[in-house]
Design brief:
The protein is built from three helices and no strands.
């Protein structure tokens, strides 16, 4: 696919660049792993500590309330 005129190669380059960009974005959207939410790193650490038994349920709930 080529566009006529003196700047046709620029339009062609932009066109194929856009097609490539959209293909990559589509690929990322389809195959991207879902993390299950938008938890903050601090909340992930807190959940890990609770799961390992480093903190009890009361401490977990208090800290979670402070984080959010």
């Amino acid at each position: 696919m080529f566009f006529p005129g003196p700047f046709g190669w620029i339009v062609t380059f932009i066109f194929w660049g856009l097609v490539l960009f959209l293909a990559v974005k589509l690929f990322q959207a389809v195959f991207q792993t879902r993390s299950g939410g938008s938890d903050s790193p601090a909340l992930n650490i807190l959940k890990s500590r609770y799961a390992r038994g480093e903190i009890n349920e009361e401490e977990y709930k208090q800290m979670r309330k402070e984080i959010q």
